[in-house]
Amino acid sequence: MSDVLDILENITYDELNEGDTATFVRTLSEDELVLFAAVSGDANPVHLDQEYAAGSIFGERVAHGMWSGALISAALATVMPGPGTVYLEQSLSFKRPVKLNDTVTVKLTVSRKDPKNRVVFRCEVTNQNNQKVVTGEA
């Protein structure tokens, strides 16, 4: 873990400009899905049980919505602005499910800079087909 911390860089408030963007990419694996269920305590069978999920509106197992939310948090903490970021608020709108083995891209865009070193980001998560799965603001 210390190797990862050695390569992370912070973008300061003064260096951020409206319209700046950054991306973070992740693929949903079976292991991540199961671990997220364990860590979050959300063992809804639509995430974990293929037979149950087959009868759901999705027709198959899907990620927890907050898995995408966690990726937004990861992008803020590691990409832009980076280490030292304090994540204060988030709005999310879930547009479509994330499925096993989907590769999603979190795109952060600086919407505005507020007083007291606060920055508002537009957040968009898309799948490998460039379909929006989550939108929001942080």
Short description, anyone?
With 138 residues, this protein is an alpha+beta fold.
Kindly, what is the distance between the CA atoms of the first and last residues, rounded to a whole number of angstroms? 26 Å
Task: Spell the H/E element sequence.
Answer: HEHHHHEEEE
Structural class: alpha+beta
User: What is the second-level CATH architecture of the domain at 18-29 and 63-137?
Assistant: Roll
Q: What's the CATH H-level superfamily name of the domain at 18-29 and 63-137?
A: Hotdog Thioesterase
Per DSSP, the total helix count is 5
Largest sheet: 5 strands, antiparallel
Regarding quaternary structure, what we see is single chain
Calculate Rg over CA atoms. 16 Å
Descriptive notes:
The chain has 138 residues and is α+β, with helices and mostly antiparallel strands. The chain has a domain at 18-29 and 63-137: Thiol Ester Dehydrase, Chain A (Roll). It is built from five helices and five strands, in the order H-E-H-H-H-H-E-E-E-E. The protein has helices at residues 2-7, 30-40, 45-48, 50-54, 65-78; strands spanning 21-27, 91-94, 103-114, 118-126, 132-137. The chain has a five-stranded antiparallel β-sheet, with helices on one face. The longest helix has 14 residues, at 65-78. The chain starts with a helix and ends with a strand. 20% of the residues are buried. The model has no long low-confidence stretch (mean pLDDT 93).
